[in-house]
């Protein structure tokens, strides 16, 4: 599996066509932000980390694309990578809802014209608010309209606020639209709340806040073969978890897409205590599926959580529990697809 780099040689613009699904990309193209082919059309811009691209983010982006269409402007999301806290608070150990590749893909489904990814470094964090506005918003993105949250701060030490941005707008010739506290509070969702839900295994809440099934991407690797011996062969998923959030240990109902066909199953995240495991594994068992998946990249969608992982007194007891898990998972899937 290709992991996402934490470093860029320069910021990039992502070109894409609107998509109908979060799980497909069409004609996605990456170019340098300094390339001559950057469009000359003025833009409407919103700014943020957008980790998870949850329903609150989606509300902002719908406002953005509507404004762009009304004024014949290009719609741009300006986002940052790595997450600012990963750079400024290196002991924070923050896990993200999306890799940068996943964030691009989800954003690409929302009808935007461009995603501008600004590498967040300590040097960038030292940039004054005015320099950021002039060099990025005005010179590179040719901004004519900015849509921003009511509590947004930016520039060195996050010293500038919405009033400062409006003053820069007067100076450089762009308008500023504030997303009210009421609009934000009406959604009542945040990336932090979603991380909390996933860390506690609350898939239902995470899905409701995200507006789509949470997922991980990984490569199928060979395991120890315990599952096959128990009539539950598993695909062992290797995930780059250096900054991607993996939900709480336990057993989950899942789906994946193989050769354009949706397959369902259940997955264990944990230490395999019945077999005295000494490291965390992610093992997926797909129902009525017998193809060899070794070496393939898979996306695993989390649909529901069945139970905690626990140690069983015997392998037979574990097999009996897995059969119950399978029955419960298949019942959930049948209801979901009804």
Automatic annotation (TrEMBL):
<comment type="pathway">
    <text>Cofactor biosynthesis; FMN biosynthesis; FMN from riboflavin (ATP route): step 1/1.</text>
</comment>
<keyword id="KW-0285">Flavoprotein</keyword>
<protein>
    <recommendedName>
        <fullName>Riboflavin biosynthesis protein</fullName>
        <ecNumber>2.7.1.26</ecNumber>
        <ecNumber>2.7.7.2</ecNumber>
    </recommendedName>
</protein>
<dbReference type="GO" id="GO:0009398">
    <property type="term" value="P:FMN biosynthetic process"/>
</dbReference>
<dbReference type="GO" id="GO:0006747">
    <property type="term" value="P:FAD biosynthetic process"/>
</dbReference>
<dbReference type="GO" id="GO:0008531">
    <property type="term" value="F:riboflavin kinase activity"/>
</dbReference>
<dbReference type="InterPro" id="IPR015864">
    <property type="entry name" value="FAD_synthase"/>
</dbReference>
<keyword id="KW-0511">Multifunctional enzyme</keyword>
<dbReference type="InterPro" id="IPR002606">
    <property type="entry name" value="Riboflavin_kinase_bac"/>
</dbReference>
<dbReference type="GO" id="GO:0003919">
    <property type="term" value="F:FMN adenylyltransferase activity"/>
</dbReference>
<dbReference type="GO" id="GO:0005524">
    <property type="term" value="F:ATP binding"/>
</dbReference>
<dbReference type="GO" id="GO:0009231">
    <property type="term" value="P:riboflavin biosynthetic process"/>
</dbReference>
<comment type="function">
    <text>Catalyzes the phosphorylation of riboflavin to FMN followed by the adenylation of FMN to FAD.</text>
</comment>
<keyword id="KW-0067">ATP-binding</keyword>
<dbReference type="InterPro" id="IPR004821">
    <property type="entry name" value="Cyt_trans-like"/>
</dbReference>
<keyword id="KW-0808">Transferase</keyword>
<keyword id="KW-0418">Kinase</keyword>
<keyword id="KW-0548">Nucleotidyltransferase</keyword>
<keyword id="KW-0547">Nucleotide-binding</keyword>
<feature type="domain" description="Riboflavin kinase">
    <location>
        <begin position="209"/>
        <end position="334"/>
    </location>
</feature>
<dbReference type="InterPro" id="IPR015865">
    <property type="entry name" value="Riboflavin_kinase_bac/euk"/>
</dbReference>
<dbReference type="InterPro" id="IPR023468">
    <property type="entry name" value="Riboflavin_kinase"/>
</dbReference>
<dbReference type="Pfam" id="PF06574">
    <property type="entry name" value="FAD_syn"/>
</dbReference>
<keyword id="KW-0288">FMN</keyword>
<comment type="similarity">
    <text>Belongs to the ribF family.</text>
</comment>
<keyword id="KW-0274">FAD</keyword>
<dbReference type="InterPro" id="IPR023465">
    <property type="entry name" value="Riboflavin_kinase_dom_sf"/>
</dbReference>
<dbReference type="Pfam" id="PF01687">
    <property type="entry name" value="Flavokinase"/>
</dbReference>
<comment type="pathway">
    <text>Cofactor biosynthesis; FAD biosynthesis; FAD from FMN: step 1/1.</text>
</comment>
<dbReference type="InterPro" id="IPR014729">
    <property type="entry name" value="Rossmann-like_a/b/a_fold"/>
</dbReference>
